[in-house]
Amino acid sequence: xxxxxxxxxxxxxVTGIVSQLMAIEQQPLVRLNQREAEVxxxxxxxxxxxxxxxxLQSTVDALKEADTFRATSxxxxxxxxxxxxxxxxxxxxxYSVTVxxxxxxxxxxxxxxxxxxxxxxxxxxxxxxSVAGENFELDLSTAKTLSEIQQSINVESNxxxxxxxxxxxxxxxxxxxxTSSETGYDNRVQLTFGGTIDASTFNFSMLNRDADDQLxxxxxxxxxxxxxxxxxxxxxxxxxxxxxxxxxxxxxxxGQSVVGISxxxxxxxxxxxxxxxxxxxxxxxxxxxxxxxxxxxxxxxVESQLRGMLNTxxxxxxxxxxxxxxxxxxxxxxxxxxxxxxxxxxxxxDKGDSVMNxxxxxxxxxxxxxxxxxxxxxxxxxxxxxxxxxxxxxxxxIERSRESLERRLEGIEQRYLNQFAALDTLMTxxxxxxEYLASQLDLLANLASGKxx
Length: 453
Hints:
The chain is an alpha+beta fold. Helix content is 45%, strand content 22%. It folds into three domains: 1-71 and 265-425; 72-103 and 223-263, no CATH class; 105-221, Alpha-Beta Plaits.
Protein backbone atom coordinates (compact mmCIF):
# COMPACT_ATOMS: atom_id res chain seq x y z
CA UNK A 1 0.00 0.00 0.00
CA UNK A 2 1.45 3.34 -1.06
CA UNK A 3 1.58 6.21 1.42
CA UNK A 4 1.75 9.90 0.69
CA UNK A 5 3.81 11.03 3.68
CA UNK A 6 6.98 9.23 4.88
CA UNK A 7 6.44 7.66 8.30
CA UNK A 8 2.70 8.23 8.35
CA UNK A 9 1.95 4.60 8.74
CA UNK A 10 4.79 3.62 11.03
CA UNK A 11 5.14 6.76 13.07
CA UNK A 12 8.88 6.94 12.24
CA UNK A 13 10.56 10.35 11.54
CA VAL A 14 11.63 9.20 8.10
CA THR A 15 12.58 12.70 6.88
CA GLY A 16 14.82 13.28 9.89
CA ILE A 17 16.41 9.84 9.64
CA VAL A 18 17.14 10.27 5.94
CA SER A 19 18.56 13.76 6.55
CA GLN A 20 20.96 12.39 9.13
CA LEU A 21 22.00 9.55 6.87
CA MET A 22 22.55 12.00 3.98
CA ALA A 23 24.65 14.27 6.20
CA ILE A 24 27.03 11.32 6.58
CA GLU A 25 26.88 10.49 2.87
CA GLN A 26 27.65 14.14 2.00
CA GLN A 27 30.99 14.27 3.84
CA PRO A 28 32.95 13.72 0.60
CA LEU A 29 31.00 16.65 -0.92
CA VAL A 30 31.89 18.86 2.05
CA ARG A 31 35.54 17.94 1.60
CA LEU A 32 35.33 18.78 -2.11
CA ASN A 33 33.84 22.20 -1.31
CA GLN A 34 36.56 22.85 1.24
CA ARG A 35 39.20 21.86 -1.28
CA GLU A 36 37.71 24.17 -3.89
CA ALA A 37 37.72 27.05 -1.38
CA GLU A 38 41.40 26.36 -0.72
CA VAL A 39 42.23 26.38 -4.43
CA UNK A 40 40.22 29.58 -5.00
CA UNK A 41 42.15 31.18 -2.12
CA UNK A 42 45.34 30.04 -3.83
CA UNK A 43 44.27 31.68 -7.11
CA UNK A 44 43.48 34.89 -5.24
CA UNK A 45 46.90 34.69 -3.60
CA UNK A 46 48.58 34.44 -7.00
CA UNK A 47 46.71 37.59 -8.05
CA UNK A 48 47.89 39.45 -4.95
CA UNK A 49 51.44 38.28 -5.49
CA UNK A 50 51.30 39.35 -9.13
CA UNK A 51 50.22 42.83 -8.05
CA UNK A 52 53.15 43.12 -5.62
CA UNK A 53 55.63 41.90 -8.23
CA UNK A 54 54.20 44.34 -10.78
CA UNK A 55 54.80 47.17 -8.30
CA LEU A 56 58.37 45.97 -7.89
CA GLN A 57 58.90 45.81 -11.64
CA SER A 58 57.58 49.34 -12.04
CA THR A 59 60.54 50.62 -10.01
CA VAL A 60 62.91 49.25 -12.64
CA ASP A 61 62.22 52.02 -15.15
CA ALA A 62 63.98 54.68 -13.09
CA LEU A 63 66.86 52.34 -12.24
CA LYS A 64 67.35 51.58 -15.93
CA GLU A 65 67.81 55.25 -16.81
CA ALA A 66 71.43 56.35 -16.67
CA ASP A 67 70.17 59.92 -16.24
CA THR A 68 68.78 58.93 -12.83
CA PHE A 69 72.36 58.69 -11.57
CA ARG A 70 73.70 61.74 -13.44
CA ALA A 71 71.04 64.25 -12.49
CA THR A 72 71.79 67.87 -11.76
CA SER A 73 69.82 70.62 -10.06
CA UNK A 74 69.82 74.35 -10.61
CA UNK A 75 69.17 77.42 -8.51
CA UNK A 76 68.44 81.06 -9.27
CA UNK A 77 69.43 83.81 -6.88
CA UNK A 78 66.40 85.84 -7.98
CA UNK A 79 63.46 83.74 -9.07
CA UNK A 80 61.46 86.88 -9.84
CA UNK A 81 63.92 87.53 -12.67
CA UNK A 82 64.32 83.95 -13.88
CA UNK A 83 64.07 80.30 -12.93
CA UNK A 84 66.35 77.55 -14.20
CA UNK A 85 66.21 73.80 -14.72
CA UNK A 86 69.02 71.46 -15.70
CA UNK A 87 69.47 67.93 -16.99
CA UNK A 88 72.21 65.33 -16.86
CA UNK A 89 74.28 67.05 -19.57
CA UNK A 90 74.77 70.18 -17.49
CA UNK A 91 78.08 70.64 -15.67
CA UNK A 92 78.47 71.99 -12.18
CA UNK A 93 79.12 75.69 -12.46
CA UNK A 94 77.54 79.11 -11.96
CA TYR A 95 76.55 81.82 -14.40
CA SER A 96 75.79 85.50 -14.01
CA VAL A 97 72.72 86.28 -16.08
CA THR A 98 71.39 89.75 -16.84
CA VAL A 99 67.97 89.97 -18.46
CA UNK A 100 67.84 93.13 -20.56
CA UNK A 101 64.54 92.53 -22.33
CA UNK A 102 61.79 89.93 -22.47
CA UNK A 103 60.50 88.52 -25.72
CA UNK A 104 57.07 89.84 -26.70
CA UNK A 105 54.18 88.88 -28.95
CA UNK A 106 54.03 91.37 -31.80
CA UNK A 107 51.08 93.76 -31.66
CA UNK A 108 49.88 96.07 -34.42
CA UNK A 109 47.09 98.60 -34.02
CA UNK A 110 45.19 100.81 -36.48
CA UNK A 111 44.47 104.45 -35.91
CA UNK A 112 41.07 105.21 -34.42
CA UNK A 113 38.03 104.98 -36.69
CA UNK A 114 34.35 105.48 -36.19
CA UNK A 115 32.48 102.23 -35.61
CA UNK A 116 30.48 102.89 -38.79
CA UNK A 117 33.58 103.37 -40.99
CA UNK A 118 33.99 100.74 -43.70
CA UNK A 119 37.01 99.51 -45.62
CA UNK A 120 37.26 98.05 -49.11
CA UNK A 121 34.28 97.54 -51.38
CA UNK A 122 36.14 97.31 -54.68
CA UNK A 123 36.94 94.12 -56.57
CA UNK A 124 40.46 92.97 -55.69
CA UNK A 125 40.50 94.70 -52.31
CA UNK A 126 42.14 92.46 -49.70
CA UNK A 127 44.31 92.33 -46.61
CA UNK A 128 46.78 89.43 -46.15
CA UNK A 129 48.12 88.51 -42.72
CA SER A 130 51.36 86.49 -42.48
CA VAL A 131 53.39 84.92 -39.67
CA ALA A 132 56.43 82.70 -40.22
CA GLY A 133 55.28 81.61 -43.68
CA GLU A 134 51.61 81.07 -42.76
CA ASN A 135 49.19 83.35 -44.65
CA PHE A 136 45.56 84.33 -44.23
CA GLU A 137 43.81 86.39 -46.89
CA LEU A 138 40.90 88.62 -45.93
CA ASP A 139 38.60 89.47 -48.84
CA LEU A 140 37.52 93.11 -48.68
CA SER A 141 35.79 93.30 -52.08
CA THR A 142 32.67 93.79 -49.96
CA ALA A 143 33.21 96.69 -47.60
CA LYS A 144 33.54 95.79 -43.91
CA THR A 145 33.61 97.70 -40.64
CA LEU A 146 36.41 97.10 -38.14
CA SER A 147 34.05 94.88 -36.14
CA GLU A 148 33.31 92.80 -39.24
CA ILE A 149 37.03 92.61 -40.06
CA GLN A 150 37.72 91.41 -36.52
CA GLN A 151 35.13 88.64 -36.85
CA SER A 152 36.52 87.64 -40.26
CA ILE A 153 40.03 87.27 -38.80
CA ASN A 154 39.02 85.29 -35.73
CA VAL A 155 37.90 82.20 -37.62
CA GLU A 156 39.08 78.60 -37.41
CA SER A 157 40.45 78.64 -40.95
CA ASN A 158 42.96 81.32 -39.96
CA UNK A 159 46.04 79.21 -39.14
CA UNK A 160 48.51 82.07 -38.73
CA UNK A 161 47.86 82.29 -35.00
CA UNK A 162 47.03 85.98 -35.33
CA UNK A 163 44.05 87.14 -33.30
CA UNK A 164 42.17 90.39 -33.73
CA UNK A 165 40.93 92.54 -30.86
CA UNK A 166 38.83 95.71 -30.89
CA UNK A 167 39.34 98.59 -28.45
CA UNK A 168 36.77 101.33 -28.04
CA UNK A 169 38.33 104.52 -26.63
CA UNK A 170 36.82 107.42 -24.69
CA UNK A 171 35.92 109.11 -27.97
CA UNK A 172 33.78 106.17 -28.98
CA UNK A 173 36.10 105.41 -31.89
CA UNK A 174 37.61 101.97 -32.39
CA UNK A 175 41.13 100.55 -32.84
CA UNK A 176 41.71 97.12 -34.41
CA UNK A 177 44.60 95.28 -32.70
CA UNK A 178 46.39 92.31 -34.30
CA THR A 179 48.41 90.04 -31.98
CA SER A 180 50.76 87.20 -32.88
CA SER A 181 50.34 84.02 -30.86
CA GLU A 182 54.12 83.52 -30.52
CA THR A 183 56.88 85.77 -29.23
CA GLY A 184 59.90 87.13 -31.08
CA TYR A 185 60.90 88.84 -34.28
CA ASP A 186 60.54 85.70 -36.42
CA ASN A 187 56.90 85.47 -35.36
CA ARG A 188 56.04 89.10 -36.09
CA VAL A 189 52.82 90.04 -37.89
CA GLN A 190 53.39 91.02 -41.52
CA LEU A 191 50.78 92.70 -43.73
CA THR A 192 50.32 92.94 -47.47
CA PHE A 193 47.53 94.70 -49.32
CA GLY A 194 45.64 94.39 -52.59
CA GLY A 195 43.35 96.51 -54.79
CA THR A 196 42.64 99.94 -53.41
CA ILE A 197 43.75 98.84 -49.91
CA ASP A 198 47.27 99.96 -48.90
CA ALA A 199 49.28 100.66 -45.75
CA SER A 200 47.62 104.05 -45.29
CA THR A 201 44.13 102.54 -45.28
CA PHE A 202 44.43 101.30 -41.71
CA ASN A 203 47.69 103.00 -40.72
CA PHE A 204 48.84 100.05 -38.57
CA SER A 205 51.68 100.76 -36.11
CA MET A 206 53.52 98.68 -33.49
CA LEU A 207 52.03 98.85 -30.01
CA ASN A 208 54.71 96.90 -28.08
CA ARG A 209 56.39 98.69 -25.18
CA ASP A 210 59.50 98.01 -23.11
CA ALA A 211 59.84 97.65 -19.34
CA ASP A 212 59.86 101.45 -19.04
CA ASP A 213 56.57 101.68 -20.96
CA GLN A 214 58.28 103.16 -23.98
CA LEU A 215 57.34 102.05 -27.49
CA UNK A 216 59.86 99.61 -28.97
CA UNK A 217 62.07 101.25 -31.54
CA UNK A 218 62.07 98.33 -33.95
CA UNK A 219 60.58 94.90 -34.45
CA UNK A 220 63.96 93.33 -33.66
CA UNK A 221 63.33 94.29 -30.03
CA UNK A 222 60.55 91.70 -29.91
CA UNK A 223 63.29 89.15 -29.16
CA UNK A 224 64.50 88.49 -25.63
CA UNK A 225 67.89 89.96 -24.83
CA UNK A 226 70.15 88.81 -22.04
CA UNK A 227 73.81 88.64 -21.13
CA UNK A 228 75.36 85.46 -19.72
CA UNK A 229 78.76 85.98 -18.17
CA UNK A 230 79.22 88.95 -20.52
CA UNK A 231 78.11 87.08 -23.65
CA UNK A 232 75.14 88.62 -25.49
CA UNK A 233 72.29 86.22 -26.14
CA UNK A 234 69.19 87.02 -28.20
CA UNK A 235 66.32 84.55 -28.53
CA UNK A 236 62.74 84.66 -29.80
CA UNK A 237 61.24 83.19 -26.64
CA UNK A 238 61.46 83.56 -22.89
CA UNK A 239 62.32 79.90 -22.32
CA UNK A 240 65.90 79.52 -23.46
CA UNK A 241 67.40 76.02 -23.59
CA UNK A 242 70.22 76.45 -26.12
CA UNK A 243 72.38 79.05 -24.45
CA UNK A 244 73.93 76.99 -21.62
CA UNK A 245 74.29 73.28 -22.33
CA UNK A 246 71.84 71.23 -20.31
CA UNK A 247 70.24 74.29 -18.73
CA UNK A 248 66.88 75.90 -19.48
CA UNK A 249 66.39 79.52 -18.44
CA UNK A 250 62.84 80.77 -17.99
CA UNK A 251 63.11 84.54 -17.88
CA UNK A 252 60.35 86.54 -16.18
CA UNK A 253 61.52 90.12 -15.74
CA UNK A 254 64.46 92.38 -16.43
CA GLY A 255 67.20 92.22 -13.82
CA GLN A 256 70.16 90.13 -12.73
CA SER A 257 70.41 86.62 -11.25
CA VAL A 258 73.12 84.07 -10.58
CA VAL A 259 72.31 80.58 -11.80
CA GLY A 260 74.03 77.70 -9.98
CA ILE A 261 74.29 74.13 -11.27
CA SER A 262 75.16 71.23 -8.96
CA UNK A 263 74.97 67.43 -8.96
CA UNK A 264 71.67 66.09 -7.62
CA UNK A 265 71.54 62.66 -6.01
CA UNK A 266 67.85 62.85 -5.05
CA UNK A 267 66.53 61.08 -8.20
CA UNK A 268 68.94 58.20 -7.54
CA UNK A 269 67.96 58.05 -3.87
CA UNK A 270 64.27 58.12 -4.75
CA UNK A 271 64.68 55.36 -7.34
CA UNK A 272 66.59 53.04 -5.01
CA UNK A 273 64.25 53.80 -2.11
CA UNK A 274 61.24 52.97 -4.32
CA UNK A 275 62.87 49.62 -5.18
CA UNK A 276 63.49 48.86 -1.50
CA UNK A 277 59.90 49.72 -0.56
CA UNK A 278 58.45 47.59 -3.37
CA UNK A 279 60.76 44.68 -2.50
CA UNK A 280 59.62 44.84 1.12
CA UNK A 281 56.04 44.97 -0.14
CA UNK A 282 56.60 41.63 -1.89
CA UNK A 283 58.12 40.20 1.29
CA UNK A 284 55.10 41.36 3.30
CA UNK A 285 52.74 39.84 0.74
CA UNK A 286 54.50 36.47 0.82
CA UNK A 287 54.49 36.49 4.64
CA UNK A 288 50.79 37.34 4.77
CA UNK A 289 49.90 34.61 2.29
CA UNK A 290 51.99 32.04 4.15
CA UNK A 291 50.38 33.04 7.46
CA UNK A 292 46.93 32.56 5.91
CA UNK A 293 47.80 28.96 5.08
CA UNK A 294 48.75 29.38 1.42
CA UNK A 295 51.60 27.03 0.65
CA UNK A 296 53.00 27.03 -2.85
CA UNK A 297 56.32 26.42 -4.54
CA UNK A 298 55.67 29.70 -6.36
CA UNK A 299 55.99 31.71 -3.15
CA UNK A 300 59.19 29.93 -2.29
CA UNK A 301 60.50 30.42 -5.81
CA VAL A 302 59.86 34.16 -5.81
CA GLU A 303 61.53 34.59 -2.45
CA SER A 304 64.51 32.49 -3.48
CA GLN A 305 65.08 34.34 -6.75
CA LEU A 306 64.80 37.75 -5.10
CA ARG A 307 67.42 36.73 -2.55
CA GLY A 308 69.57 35.50 -5.39
CA MET A 309 69.35 38.89 -7.10
CA LEU A 310 70.77 40.54 -4.01
CA ASN A 311 73.50 38.00 -3.37
CA THR A 312 74.79 37.41 -6.90
CA UNK A 313 77.82 39.46 -7.91
CA UNK A 314 77.57 41.57 -11.06
CA UNK A 315 80.97 41.69 -12.70
CA UNK A 316 82.53 43.90 -15.33
CA UNK A 317 80.41 46.95 -14.50
CA UNK A 318 82.90 48.99 -12.51
CA UNK A 319 83.85 49.24 -8.87
CA UNK A 320 80.65 47.79 -7.43
CA UNK A 321 79.42 44.19 -7.63
CA UNK A 322 76.71 44.01 -4.96
CA UNK A 323 73.84 46.33 -4.18
CA UNK A 324 74.84 46.13 -0.52
CA UNK A 325 77.92 48.20 -1.43
CA UNK A 326 75.52 50.98 -2.41
CA UNK A 327 73.57 51.08 0.83
CA UNK A 328 70.92 48.37 0.30
CA UNK A 329 71.30 45.61 2.89
CA UNK A 330 69.10 42.87 4.35
CA UNK A 331 67.90 43.08 7.93
CA UNK A 332 68.91 39.78 9.51
CA UNK A 333 65.84 39.70 11.76
CA UNK A 334 63.07 40.53 9.29
CA UNK A 335 64.62 39.57 5.95
CA UNK A 336 63.52 42.95 4.62
CA UNK A 337 65.76 45.47 2.90
CA UNK A 338 67.03 48.63 4.52
CA UNK A 339 68.57 51.58 2.71
CA UNK A 340 71.47 53.75 3.84
CA UNK A 341 71.16 56.72 1.50
CA UNK A 342 74.46 58.20 2.64
CA UNK A 343 76.35 55.20 1.26
CA UNK A 344 74.74 55.74 -2.14
CA UNK A 345 75.46 59.48 -2.10
CA UNK A 346 79.10 58.87 -1.20
CA UNK A 347 79.42 56.30 -3.98
CA UNK A 348 77.88 58.72 -6.49
CA UNK A 349 80.31 61.43 -5.45
CA ASP A 350 83.34 59.13 -5.58
CA LYS A 351 82.57 56.82 -8.51
CA GLY A 352 79.37 57.99 -10.15
CA ASP A 353 79.94 56.14 -13.41
CA SER A 354 80.38 52.82 -11.59
CA VAL A 355 77.12 53.38 -9.69
CA MET A 356 75.34 54.21 -12.94
CA ASN A 357 76.75 51.12 -14.66
CA UNK A 358 75.84 48.82 -11.77
CA UNK A 359 72.18 49.78 -12.00
CA UNK A 360 71.71 50.87 -15.62
CA UNK A 361 74.11 48.92 -17.82
CA UNK A 362 72.07 47.74 -20.81
CA UNK A 363 73.81 44.35 -21.00
CA UNK A 364 74.03 43.12 -17.44
CA UNK A 365 73.03 45.84 -14.99
CA UNK A 366 70.98 45.21 -11.86
CA UNK A 367 67.84 46.82 -13.33
CA UNK A 368 68.01 44.71 -16.48
CA UNK A 369 68.39 41.48 -14.52
CA UNK A 370 65.58 42.41 -12.13
CA UNK A 371 63.32 43.31 -15.05
CA UNK A 372 64.05 40.00 -16.79
CA UNK A 373 63.30 38.07 -13.62
CA UNK A 374 60.02 39.93 -13.13
CA UNK A 375 59.08 39.29 -16.75
CA UNK A 376 59.52 35.55 -16.26
CA UNK A 377 56.93 35.69 -13.47
CA UNK A 378 54.56 38.32 -14.86
CA UNK A 379 54.43 37.98 -18.63
CA UNK A 380 51.44 36.42 -20.33
CA UNK A 381 51.91 32.67 -20.11
CA UNK A 382 54.70 33.16 -17.55
CA UNK A 383 55.26 31.41 -14.26
CA UNK A 384 52.34 32.95 -12.37
CA UNK A 385 49.92 32.39 -15.24
CA UNK A 386 51.03 28.75 -15.33
CA UNK A 387 50.29 28.34 -11.63
CA UNK A 388 46.90 30.04 -12.05
CA UNK A 389 46.13 27.81 -15.02
CA UNK A 390 47.01 24.72 -12.98
CA UNK A 391 44.82 25.88 -10.11
CA UNK A 392 41.91 26.56 -12.46
CA UNK A 393 42.29 23.03 -13.85
CA UNK A 394 42.00 21.69 -10.30
CA UNK A 395 38.85 23.76 -9.81
CA UNK A 396 37.41 22.27 -12.99
CA UNK A 397 38.24 18.76 -11.79
CA ILE A 398 36.61 19.46 -8.42
CA GLU A 399 33.52 20.81 -10.18
CA ARG A 400 33.20 17.68 -12.28
CA SER A 401 33.67 15.47 -9.22
CA ARG A 402 31.07 17.47 -7.32
CA GLU A 403 28.52 17.15 -10.11
CA SER A 404 29.09 13.39 -10.27
CA LEU A 405 28.88 13.06 -6.48
CA GLU A 406 25.72 15.18 -6.30
CA ARG A 407 24.06 12.91 -8.86
CA ARG A 408 25.12 9.84 -6.84
CA LEU A 409 23.84 11.43 -3.61
CA GLU A 410 20.47 12.07 -5.23
CA GLY A 411 20.28 8.36 -6.04
CA ILE A 412 21.32 7.40 -2.50
CA GLU A 413 18.71 9.71 -0.97
CA GLN A 414 16.01 8.28 -3.21
CA ARG A 415 17.07 4.76 -2.29
CA TYR A 416 16.81 5.59 1.41
CA LEU A 417 13.38 7.11 0.87
CA ASN A 418 12.24 4.03 -1.10
CA GLN A 419 13.56 1.68 1.58
CA PHE A 420 11.82 3.56 4.38
CA ALA A 421 8.66 3.75 2.29
CA ALA A 422 8.74 -0.06 1.99
CA LEU A 423 9.38 -0.34 5.71
CA ASP A 424 6.54 2.06 6.38
CA THR A 425 4.21 -0.02 4.18
CA LEU A 426 5.32 -3.23 5.86
CA MET A 427 4.85 -1.83 9.33
CA THR A 428 1.43 -0.46 8.38
CA UNK A 429 0.45 -3.91 7.06
CA UNK A 430 1.73 -5.60 10.20
CA UNK A 431 -0.13 -3.14 12.36
CA UNK A 432 -3.36 -3.88 10.45
CA UNK A 433 -2.82 -7.64 10.79
CA UNK A 434 -2.04 -7.26 14.48
CA GLU A 435 -5.21 -5.28 15.03
CA TYR A 436 -7.25 -7.89 13.12
CA LEU A 437 -5.78 -10.75 15.10
CA ALA A 438 -6.39 -8.88 18.34
CA SER A 439 -10.01 -8.32 17.38
CA GLN A 440 -10.44 -12.00 16.48
CA LEU A 441 -8.93 -13.08 19.77
CA ASP A 442 -11.22 -10.71 21.59
CA LEU A 443 -14.17 -12.24 19.70
CA LEU A 444 -13.13 -15.79 20.59
CA ALA A 445 -12.68 -14.78 24.17
CA ASN A 446 -16.15 -13.31 24.25
CA LEU A 447 -17.63 -16.47 22.67
CA ALA A 448 -15.88 -18.66 25.19
CA SER A 449 -17.10 -16.53 28.02
CA GLY A 450 -20.69 -16.80 26.72
CA LYS A 451 -20.62 -20.57 26.63
CA UNK A 452 -19.28 -20.77 30.12
CA UNK A 453 -22.11 -18.65 31.36
